[in-house]
Specification:
alpha/beta; Rossmann fold
C-alpha cells in the first residue's frame, strides 16, 4: 500500500502530466494549473516574465508564483540548478545570466515536463542546458555542484520539505546560495482546503506556515536568510466556493488566514559540514 507521501507524489505527477499539455491561459487562471479555473480573475499567482532576458513563450506555462531568477544573483559561468523546472522557463532565463560558459540543470518529477523542456532547449540550440527527471527530495546530483539553486512554486508540492532543504545544502557549493519562490501560510487553512488533494496539486493545501518554512532553512545550516519579496495571494470566491460554504467563506476572508508568495534567499556557509555533524 502506498504511503500518504507516495500518494501525494503520484497525484502531483499525474496532475502535472496533464498540465504540461494545458494552455497557459488555463494554468494562470487556476492555482498552479490545478483546481477549478476562475472566471473572476486572471493570473492568480504567477508574475510576468516576458520582460526578462532569455524569456521563451513556449516554456512559460504560467505555473510560477514569483520571479526567483530575477533575485538569484546569477553570474557569468555559474552552474545553476532549477528545482521543478517544468517546461524550462526559469532555466532559459538563468542561461541568459550564466552565459555560454555556465551550466544550467533543470530537475523535474514529471516525465512529460522533462520531455517538453528538452524539446524547447533543442529548438533554442542550447548545449549547456540539460533536464533531468528526478525527485528533489533525493536529487540526481553530486555534492557541491551548484553555485546557485532556484525554484518557483514547487516546494509546496513536496511532502518532505525538510529533505529538500537538506538536498539543497548538499548540492550547493560552499558559499553558494539559493533564491526560491514559494507559497506559505499565516494562520490555518479551513479543513476542506487542507484535505482536498486537488488543492494540494494546486499549491495551496501543501503550503506550510511562513515561520516554519523559514525555520527549516535555518535548521538546515543556511545563513543570510532573507525574504526578498512577499505578496498576498487571493484565491477567488468562485474557486473557494467549491470547498467552503458561505459561513466558512466569510470566516476565511475575515483576515485570520493569509496565503502568500515569498521569495527567499539564503547562503550555504563558505566552510561548513552538514548540519548536526558538530564540525561547524
Amino acid at each position: 500500500m502506498q504511503s500518504s507521501s507516495e500518494q501525494l507524489k503520484s497525484l502531483v505527477q499525474q496532475k502535472y502530466s496533464e498540465i504540461a499539455l494545458q494552455d497557459k491561459d488555463v494554468n494562470m487562471a487556476s492555482c498552479c494549473g490545478a483546481g477549478g479555473c476562475s472566471t473572476e480573475v486572471y493570473n492568480i499567482m504567477s508574475d510576468d516574465y516576458s520582460t526578462l532576458g532569455g524569456y521563451n513563450p513556449d516554456a512559460d506555462l504560467g505555473l510560477g508564483c514569483g520571479l526567483p531568477t530575477q533575485f538569484a544573483k546569477i553570474k557569468k559561468g555559474d552552474t545553476v540548478v532549477d528545482l521543478g523546472s517544468g517546461a524550462g522557463n526559469d532555466c532559459f532565463i538563468a542561461r541568459e545570466e550564466t552565459g555560454d560558459t555556465g551550466r544550467v540543470i533543470g530537475i523535474d518529477f514529471t516525465p512529460a515536463m522533462v520531455d517538453k523542456a528538452r524539446a524547447n532547449a533543442a529548438k533554442l540550440g542550447f548545449s549547456n542546458v540539460e533536464f533531468l527527471q528526478g525527485d528533489i527530495e533525493k536529487m540526481p546530483l553530486a555534492d557541491n555542484v551548484a553555485d546557485v539553486i532556484v525554484s518557483n512554486c514547487v516546494l509546496n508540492l513536496v511532502p518532505d520539505k525538510d529533505a529538500v532543504f537538506q538536498e539543497i545544502f548538499r548540492t550547493l557549493k560552499p558559499g553558494g546560495h539559493f533564491s526560491i519562490s514559494d507559497i506559505v501560510l499565516v494562520g490555518d487553512l479551513p479543513e476542506a482546503l487542507q484535505k482536498d488533494a486537488e488543492m494540494y496539486a494546486g499549491c495551496v493545501s501543501g503550503a506550510i506556515q511562513r515561520e516554519k518554512y523559514l525555520e527549516l532553512i535555518h535548521q538546515n545550516g543556511f545563513n543570510w536568510v532573507t525574504v526578498q519579496k512577499q505578496k498576498a495571494i487571493v484565491i477567488p470566491d468562485d474557486i473557494l466556493k467549491n470547498y467552503l460554504n458561505d459561513a466558512e467563506l466569510a470566516q476565511f476572508k475575515s483576515g485570520q488566514t493569509g496565503i502568500f508568495s515569498i521569495t527567499v534567499f539564503a547562503k550555504k556557509p563558505e566552510s561548513c559540514c552538514a548540519p548536526g555533524s558538530g564540525c561547524c
